From TrEMBL, chain A:
<protein>
    <recommendedName>
        <fullName>NADH-ubiquinone oxidoreductase chain 6</fullName>
        <ecNumber>7.1.1.2</ecNumber>
    </recommendedName>
</protein>
<keyword id="KW-0249">Electron transport</keyword>
<dbReference type="InterPro" id="IPR042106">
    <property type="entry name" value="Nuo/plastoQ_OxRdtase_6_NuoJ"/>
</dbReference>
<keyword id="KW-0679">Respiratory chain</keyword>
<keyword id="KW-1133">Transmembrane helix</keyword>
<keyword id="KW-0472">Membrane</keyword>
<keyword id="KW-0496">Mitochondrion</keyword>
TrEMBL record, chain B:
<dbReference type="Pfam" id="PF00146">
    <property type="entry name" value="NADHdh"/>
</dbReference>
<keyword id="KW-0472">Membrane</keyword>
<feature type="transmembrane region" description="Helical">
    <location>
        <begin position="73"/>
        <end position="94"/>
    </location>
</feature>
<feature type="transmembrane region" description="Helical">
    <location>
        <begin position="235"/>
        <end position="256"/>
    </location>
</feature>
<feature type="transmembrane region" description="Helical">
    <location>
        <begin position="6"/>
        <end position="28"/>
    </location>
</feature>
<dbReference type="InterPro" id="IPR001694">
    <property type="entry name" value="NADH_UbQ_OxRdtase_su1/FPO"/>
</dbReference>
<feature type="transmembrane region" description="Helical">
    <location>
        <begin position="301"/>
        <end position="321"/>
    </location>
</feature>
TrEMBL record, chain C:
<dbReference type="GO" id="GO:0031966">
    <property type="term" value="C:mitochondrial membrane"/>
</dbReference>
<dbReference type="InterPro" id="IPR000440">
    <property type="entry name" value="NADH_UbQ/plastoQ_OxRdtase_su3"/>
</dbReference>
<keyword id="KW-0496">Mitochondrion</keyword>
<comment type="function">
    <text>Core subunit of the mitochondrial membrane respiratory chain NADH dehydrogenase (Complex I) that is believed to belong to the minimal assembly required for catalysis. Complex I functions in the transfer of electrons from NADH to the respiratory chain. The immediate electron acceptor for the enzyme is believed to be ubiquinone.</text>
</comment>
<keyword id="KW-0520">NAD</keyword>
<keyword id="KW-0812">Transmembrane</keyword>
<dbReference type="GO" id="GO:0030964">
    <property type="term" value="C:NADH dehydrogenase complex"/>
</dbReference>
């Protein structure tokens, strides 16, 4: 178990380093896919099988395809990588530090034993005694069912927000990419099928 | 240790019949197409040409692998490996009988969906790394096509899942004991079959490899075993989709009601029979229909199948919850 | 997660198998590359230039729309399983969600984003 975790994490981290270091942007995206696959492996190890599969379907199956399309279209020949990486260090390092602090603060004491930075006591462990897990003993739910039971009822407003975000994404994508050429002739299938023979064909005589 | 041995034996019992199945599927395709076009098909190697696929495989094995000069070699070689690998591992959740499955995931359908959505990478990587125009165009087309039909495939699956109430393949089959899902969901069943044709890049949706314009699509630069792996992967995916179709709609390993005197046959026989039915359909369709035009293909996917399958989700869920029929 | 272990073994075995299959021709078959043979196939012509170029923006549009509908489908998966337990409230939640997306779908249809030329 720990061995698998170490293997997936090591592969994931090394391929995420390769995402940045690879010369060819297409290679970068392919390494990114490797990162995603490793992350879903880690998710499986955590018992989050539904999330692992959704991760594969959405990130690898859909988003990375789009990335690949974009990168393939950019048509960058092998980029020269001579410029020093140090130039980006202040900005990148700053952002990295912020993310790291966020993670450290966000984790509570159970994950990081000697976490001095966690703000406030973690209430959960104080309110809920260790031995009371009635929920688990009463109902055996698979992860996907447990998610389904709350996401469409208790958290429905987040769910609605997701739908609006998707709507905005759809409209935005269309507005940005679509430029219809009026000269192009299109096949109007429904008109074609609805056309009546007797009205369109007439005898010339 | 015995656990390992058991898993290894199960995998062996999955891979060997699968590879043989692919080989004879190819032969069956050539024979059936031959019969439909009133010719004999392969009939020289072995009795009735039965050893033809073996001979083909051996021939491909001793051919030189041509590595194009301006290809990205690592990706070029990784693409067929990936395709074949994905075609193999997607079989690990398919049950051939009650308990006859490599690992009975409770999210089996989702696993299959995820693995098949990874299948586009074999195509994109092959097309891009070959650095050939035909391959590149073929890969782009193929990707857009597979992606488009995956949406309707997913939506059709949702409707059947509402009926079944589970993502586990065994439970899906068990829930069809009363009636096969093909009966109440007949239109979806037809749409699923057609989407499978498009998803596996088969005729009449074989635009990516349209011989007349793109010579062979994304695998034009491949030769020898690398080509053979693509071929095996594609046919493996075909058989997989047919099996998937028979599990979702024709009750998997449940015996045919009209052949009740054959109930003693093992469950795998029934699953094979149903899958063979679909495979024959694949070949029949290929021999009968002309190829679609690309805009028509995309229109069928986005403007016909997607709204229809979405409407079926509305309809089926409303019907089930309104009448309190849910499992 | 232990139920995924056979898949992991299968993954490794199939990786090994396909690597062996790809490797066999390099051992048993003679490798004689010449410039004509290993140049990109272009129906007998010499390849004009690099094959990687710009392509139609519609492919992106398809990819983006696919992401959106794929997310929709992945939201539907848990819903289809627990529909009996979340009763009418959950049902109408999803119907609302789908209606919003159907609105977007109608929009793209009207805009002609689904047409190919």
């Amino acid at each position: 178990m720990n061995l698998f975790l170490a293997a997936f994490a090591a592969l994931g981290i090394s391929s995420s380093i390769m995402v940045i270091r690879a010369n060819n942007p297409v290679y970068s995206v392919l390494y990114l896919i490797l990162v995603f696959v490793n992350v879903s492996g880690i998710l499986i190890l955590q018992g989050l099988d539904f999330f692992a599969m959704i991760f594969l379907v959405v990130y690898v199956g859909a988003i990375a395809v789009l990335f690949l399309f974009v990168v393939m279209m950019l048509n960058i020949k092998v980029e020269e990588k001579q410029e020093s990486m140090l130039r980006y260090l202040p900005v990148g390092g700053g952002i990295g530090l912020i993310f790291f602090l966020e993670v450290v603060i966000g984790l509570d004491k159970e994950f990081v034993p000697l976490n001095l930075l966690s703000l406030g006591p973690s209430y959960e462990s104080e309110i809920l005694p260790e031995y009371l897990h009635w929920g688990e003993t009463l109902a055996q739910k698979t992860g996907i069912e447990a998610i389904g039971q709350v996401i469409y009822t208790y958290y429905f407003y987040y769910f609605f927000m997701a739908s609006f975000i998707l709507l905005v994404a759809m409209i935005g994508a269309i507005l940005l990419t679509l430029h219809n050429d009026p000269k192009v002739k299109r096949q109007e299938v429904f008109e074609q099928n609805a056309r009546e023979f007797s009205r369109t064909i007439q005898k010339a005589s | 240790m015995s656990y390992f041995l058991g898993v290894l034996l199960k995998i062996l019992g999955l891979v060997v019949p699968l590879l043989l199945g692919i080989a004879f599927m190819v032969l069956a395709e050539r024979k059936v197409m031959g019969s439909i076009q009133r010719r004999k098909g392969p009939n020289v190697v072995g009795v009735f040409g039965i050893l033809q696929p073996i001979a083909d495989g051996l021939k491909l094995m001793v051919k030189e692998t041509v590595l194009p000069s301006n290809a990205n070699l690592m990706i070029f070689l990784a693409a067929p490996v990936l395709t074949f690998m994905l075609a193999l591992i997607s079989w690990s959740v398919i049950p051939f009988g009650d308990g006859l499955v490599l690992c009975d995931l409770n999210i089996g359908v989702l696993y299959l969906f995820a693995v098949s959505s990874l299948g586009v990478y074999g195509v994109i990587m092959a097309g891009w790394s070959s650095n050939s125009k035909y391959a590149f165009l073929g890969a782009l087309r193929s990707t857009a096509q597979m992606v488009s039909y995956e949406v309707s495939l997913g939506l059709i699956l949702i409707s059947t899942l509402i009926f079944a109430g589970s993502l586990n393949f065994t439970e899906i089959v068990e829930s069809q004991k009363e009636v096969w899902f093909a009966v109440p969901l007949f239109p979806l069943f037809i749409m699923f079959f057609i989407s499978c044709l498009a998803e596996t890049n088969r005729a009449p949706f074989d635009l990516p490899e349209a011989e007349a314009e793109l010579v062979a699509g994304y695998n034009v630069e491949y030769s020898s075993m690398a080509f053979a792996l693509f071929f095996l992967g594609e046919y493996g995916n075909m058989i997989l989709m047919c099996t998937f179709c028979s599990i979702m709609f024709l009750g998997g390993w449940l015996p045919l009601p009209i052949l009740s005197s054959f109930d003693f046959m093992p469950p795998g026989f029934w699953l094979g029979l149903k899958a063979a039915f679909f495979l024959f359909g694949f070949i029949w369709v290929r021999a009968s229909f002309p190829r679609y035009r690309y805009d028509q293909l995309m229109r069928l996917g986005w403007k016909v199948f997607l709204p229809l399958s979405l409407a079926w989700v509305f309809f089926v869920s409303g019907l089930m919850i309104g009448n309190d029929w849910l499992p | 997660m232990t139920e995924f272990f056979p898949i992991f073994i299968f993954l490794i075995i199939s990786l090994g198998l396909s690597l062996i299959l790809v490797g066999i021709p390099f051992i048993v078959a003679p490798q004689k590359a010449d410039p004509e043979k290993i140049s990109a196939y272009e129906c007998g012509f010499d390849p004009f230039d690099d094959a990687r170029g710009k392509f139609d923006i519609r492919f992106y549009l398809v990819a983006i729309l696919f992401i959106i509908f794929d997310l929709e489908v992945s939201f539907l998966f848990p819903w289809s399983l627990v529909l009996g337990e979340i009763s009418f409230f959950g049902f109408w939640t999803m119907i609302f969600f789908l209606l919003i997306l159907t609105l977007g779908f109608v929009y793209e249809w009207k805009k002609g984003a689904l047409d190919w030329e």
